[in-house]
Design a protein that fits this description.
The structure holds two protein chains of two kinds. Chain A is of the alpha/beta class. Chain A has helices at about 20-40, 70-80, 90-95, 110-120, 145-160; strands at about 5-15, 40-45, 55-60, 80-85, 135-140. Chain A is about 40% helix and about 20% strand. The N and C termini of chain B lie close together (about 10 Å). The chains are: A alpha/beta, B alpha+beta. The interface of A and B includes residues 19, 22, 30, 44 and 99 of A.
């Protein structure tokens, strides 16, 4: 019998609380056995050491983009996946990780300035769609689990 | 003698973005940097000028996995700034919600991140679908354990992440007591699995002994994560309001987070489960103590890998504590205590899953935040982790690179660091001259 192609998935996190990653690990309580049969988790640093971003069907991306380095990484992910799904509020809207965008100059004290100048922070924190094409969104803080499961099913039907 | 440069780009199975750079010359470690690399979001600056009622749920967004810890610590700090005295019922309900957090959070770290180290595999994804396989059994135990913790938090606090029910002065609404018998059944149902986990993680053979300075909350009445006095292993007792003065903040130029040492002797120290069990094992729940006596005999321990075993023990503690409370609590209708805003400073100190967590708020007479500060456990452990790694590398340079890389990851992982608080992945830059 011909072996069915697995859905090749990558999971990525940028600036956020990683609450959706935690919720994802909770979904594994019920779904890991079933997903292992139909999904290849090619990039999932939360759970494995050997990761690759090449040849992804779907990239699930959590978090907002806070630096040029992250922006570059996001573009690389986009180049390597067929579909990209923004996961959670920070990825979909930038909020709340983008709260520093609203700090007025008098709120940027020495401590904040030191960090902003000592590391490669971008001028503004951005949502994913400001940088790359986003095919689907799972909003919520953390992500809405039911919507995520529906989107996972959608891509299982599309690519696997 | 080793020479050259090696870069590992991704140590995984931790919660956070961090890096490690090791420089070795003539078989000596001449430089080692452990760097927290998560980009700061400046939440404590953002809450300045906001009304206190908006603060706890916003600051729970500091971290996904320990959001209930930040939520309750912020609430405690604000209540103290406003001189709000909570009821015994609120205190017990918070303990229940917190037991749920600890059960789920520790199980995630132990079974999803550390278990592969115990089994000698890369990932839980590599565990065979064989019901007789020990790894398979433990992994499926973890599903049940995590679910029980999540059910408990959800029933009491409304959600496992960014829980909506705990609020300043009490709870927005009280839990449905009709669900308590089922929760007790579920918790009793996982007890055997939790004890199997204690035995399994006691079987980890790794040893790393260096520091013996620990810090944790201690409640003389019972094992508690939320109320108590701060103590360290030298026997010093510190009031929560003095906690900040007891520490010296250390700017680490290559890290996105400050480190901390004791302000008197400038020594590094460890917070977290190992510190708590070392300092508080005599106050564990009686049923917990009776069930795992032989494993508790391993404490106090200076083996940093015993942080994993200590977490497994704390899961059982939380299961037994929750069963006791659920079996005895009689809820009465209560509204959150509200008082007119007053100016003041409040400090909250609780034990987050990874160690002692500090929130400080200064409020004006309109209930608006003037100043806010947070000290998280992973930042406190940062210097200790770095020094442990130095010791490990200095003593093991004769080992192959693959072994050194793996062990460095395991040492960091055993601390259960959280950089979201801190998160994503860890980059190691390894330079041999």
């Amino acid at each position: 019998m011909e072996k069915k192609k697995k859905l090749v998935v990558g999971w990525f996190s940028f600036s956020c609380s990683e609450d959706s990653t935690i919720l994802f690990t909770e979904l594994l309580n019920e779904h890991l056995d079933e997903w292992k049969k139909v999904i290849e988790f090619r990039h999932l640093k939360t759970l494995k050491s050997n990761n690759s971003i090449e040849g992804l069907d779907v990239a699930f991306v959590e978090g907002a983009i806070a630096s040029p380095t992250q922006e570059k990484e996001l573009k690389k992910i986009r180049e390597n996946c067929k579909s990209l799904v923004a996961i959670g509020s920070c990825a979909c809207t930038g909020t709340p990780s983008n709260c520093r965008n609203k700090l007025v100059p008098e709120e940027v004290n020495y401590k904040i300035s030191w960090y902003l100048s000592n590391f490669d922070y971008s001028k503004e924190v951005k949502k994913l769609a400001d940088i790359v094409k986003v095919d689907d969104e799972v909003n919520g803080c953390p992500m809405n689990a039911e919507v995520f499961l529906k989107i996972m099913d959608k891509y299982l039907k599309k690519y696997a | 003698m080793h020479s050259g440069e090696i870069t590992i780009d991704s140590i995984t199975k931790i919660e956070g973005t961090a890096g490690l750079s090791v420089t070795i010359k003539d078989d000596k470690v001449i430089d080692l940097k452990f760097m927290i690399k998560d980009y700061r979001r400046f939440y404590t600056s953002t809450v300045k000028g906001k009304p206190i009622v908006a603060v706890p749920s916003f600051l729970s967004r500091i971290c996904g996995t320990c959001s209930i810890a930040h939520l309750l610590c912020a609430i405690e700090a604000i209540e103290r700034s406003q001189d709000i005295k909570i009821t015994e019922q609120t205190r017990l309900l918070r303990r229940l919600a917190y037991d749920g957090l600890m059960i789920r959070d520790h199980a995630l770290h132990l079974y999803f991140f550390v278990l592969p180290d115990l089994l000698g595999i890369d990932s839980i994804l590599d565990i065979p679908d064989d019901h007789d396989d020990f790894g398979h059994q433990l992994l499926h135990d973890s599903f049940d354990i995590k679910k029980a913790g999540s059910e408990l938090s959800t029933t009491i606090a409304g959600a496992i992440i960014h829980a909506p029910m705990p609020t300043i002065g009490g709870f927005m609404s009280l839990p449905d007591v009709a669900k308590f018998p089922e929760l007790i059944k579920q918790l009793e149902g996982i007890r055997g699995q939790v004890i199997r986990g204690v035995k399994a993680f006691a079987g980890m053979k790794d040893v790393l002994i260096r520091n013996s300075d620990y810090l944790a909350l201690r409640n003389d009445k019972y094992f508690d994560f939320l109320d108590g006095e701060i103590i360290n292993s030298s026997g010093k007792k510190i009031k929560e309001t003095e906690f900040h003065n007891f520490l010296d903040s250390v700017v680490i130029p290559y890290s996105q987070a400050h480190g901390y040492v004791f302000s008197d002797d400038k020594q590094d120290y460890l917070v977290g489960s190992l510190a708590r069990i070392n300092l508080n094992k005599d106050s564990l729940n009686k049923r917990t103590t009776e069930s795992i006596e032989e494993y508790l005999a391993l404490f106090p321990s200076d083996n940093v890998y015993h942080n994993n075993l200590a977490q497994a023990i704390e899961i059982l503690q939380c299961v037994d504590d929750a069963i006791e409370i659920l079996s005895t609590i009689e809820l009465v209708p209560e509204q959150p205590i509200r008082v007119p805003p007053r100016p003041g400073v409040g400090v909250g100190v609780i034990e987050a899953p990874r160690g002692t967590l500090y929130h400080m708020v200064e409020v004006d007479n309109q209930g608006i935040v003037i100043d806010y500060d947070v000290i998280v456990p992973t930042a406190q452990n940062q210097i200790n982790i770095e020094n442990d790694l130095k010791k490990y590398f200095e003593e093991n340079l004769d080992k192959g690179e693959d072994v050194l890389k793996l062990e460095a990851e395991k040492i960091i992982r055993t601390y259960d660091p959280c950089m979201s608080c801190a998160t994503n992945f860890l980059k190691i830059e390894w330079i041999r001259l």
